Amino acid sequence: MLENVPDKDLEGSIFITGFQGFGMVGYLTSRHLVLELKLKRIGFIRTKYYPETTIYTKETGVVYPFELYYGVVEGKKLLVLVNNGTPNVRERTDYAELVARWVKEKKVSKTILVGGLDPSLKESEDEKYRWVPIGGYQERLNAKLLESRHIIGPLALLMIFMDAYKVPGIALFSYTELYRPDPRASAVAVEVIGDILGFKIDTTRLLEEAKIIESIEAEREKMLKSVEMEEAEKGHPIYL
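The structure corresponding to this sequence follows.
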């Protein structure tokens, strides 16, 4: 802990986190919540195989690989774990169990885990996300469950241990671009989280980031097509 926050202040909190998986949705969502809601960094997770990287920003200072933020917004206590890195594969199981056990000990009220989902599973264009209840969660969301589909990676481990420790909550999966950061998918997750919390969370920053990434992708596609046409005119085969 970097700040001395009494356990009684953490009790009843809503815990939110995600990882740098498909579309980096879990990471972008948790990062956005911290910045937009102006939560305070109160601690970090130290692992045995700690990532040897950091960065400095005016908003957060020196960045730790796994940071814990806290704040009270609209009467709701929020605990957000921002995974700026990915736990080493040799200790992901221990990492997931540590987090689940810690939030259980702090008596959080519910947990929201966020990830990205392959858009090929969409049954309609209006469908934006699916979800999974964990730890005996009784409430319902206005979306289809993600049933009979494999979930992989650190988020899957965290789901398993949250369920085993009977920490009620959900795993939320926004449909996303699979192989590039997708702030637009994170904006969907933020809106759903806002509905769960009972107040609106601005997603303007995420949508602006999405426009920048999409414009870069469009320019890249334009350049590739230009090269393809040029090579085709010369009669050269192209391998991409």
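The mean pLDDT is 93.
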